[in-house]
Structure formats: C-alpha cells, structure tokens
Amino acid sequence: MSLLRRTSARLFVLFCVLLALAWSFGFSWELPESWKDTGIMTSSRARIAQAFSTKKVSVDEIYGLLHLVTGDSDESQHVLTNKVELDPTKPITLDVYAAGSKNLNWDKEMKRLNTEFPVVVFSKTYCPYSKKAKNLLATYDLEPPVKVIEVDLRDDWNVLKALLTRLTHHSTFPNIIVRGKSLGGSDDLQALHATKSLVDVFKKAGVYVRNKNNQ
Residue limits of the Glutaredoxin domain (predicted)? Predict the structure, then answer.
C-alpha cells in the first residue's frame, strides 16, 4: 500500500513539473470546464502580467527639487521651509516636492523636466563666479534656454544649499545641472569650455547650440 502511495505521489509531482514547463514555454491547452469557472489560472496570469507592467523607472530625488524650483508659483519657495520637521541632509520623498499635487506621475515629470529645462543653474545674484558661469552659458545661446534659479532671492535658500550639497556633492554656487546631473561650478564649466567638450555635453543632453562659434 505504501509503495502505491509513493508511486502516486511521484506521478503527481511529475505531472506538476510538466504542467509548469508547458505553461512557461507558452503552450496552450483547454482547461476542464470545472477549472475555468474558478478563474484560478487566468487570475494567476493576470497577477504576473500586472507585476511586470507596473514596474517603474527609478526617479532621482534631484528631479523632485527641479520640479519645485522650476514651477511658476512663488509659493514653491515656502514648501520646504513650512515643514519644520524636514531635514535636508537626509533623503526626502518625492511627495514632499510635489507640494500637494496628487497622483503626479514622476516618470513623465522627469522626462518633461529633461525636455523643458535640461540645463538649470543654481546661482547667487552677487556671486562673481555665478556671473561668470551665466555669461559663458549665454555665449552658447542654448535652446531650450538655461533656467537660472537665483537662490539668494528665495526664502528657502538655506534648505536649497543643504539639498544641493547632499544630492550633487557640490556645496558652492553656481551649481550647473544638466539633465539631473551636476557639472560642478564655474571652474568646471570653464574647463569643459576650454577643451571644447561643453558643446558635446549639451548635444548629448538634447540641447541645441545656436552659436556656431561654439560648435
């Protein structure tokens, strides 16, 4: 009797293995009517398909900051300062930067920012290095144009400085961001320009250089 049970168990395991292999290779078959009514197989396939279809691209926190500072509303500079418990030296969720915008699709927002504001300069109005960097960028006559954020004119300037230090590992101004990545400051920008590498950086970022003298 025990031998019969072991044989039956082995046959059942073998059947399950063959069934799994057939399913994984895409073979189709007709289910018994009693199984069709349960919806077991179809629901399992649906769950697996959903798991793959809902896989999202990771969006760096820097895009949350860019979303906030490139907005048209003056209230954007109060979003971070109004949160007393916020620590800019530690990671912040993208929801905080969304400032109440529900159901914001960050994958699409990242693409929009890369398209509309591929070059963002965090500057200070009185800083000679910021002026030097902005003047150099102006000679390239970029399209889309450079988006300049004058940090010292914002109420959240101290928070922005801490955030940029953590996110870009560059703590001074200016801080030039190209498609979410920091090029560094004025000296870094001048070095790229001197070696004629800066135009290649812009081209790879999808930015058109109008000034032919810099091409």
Answer: 119-181
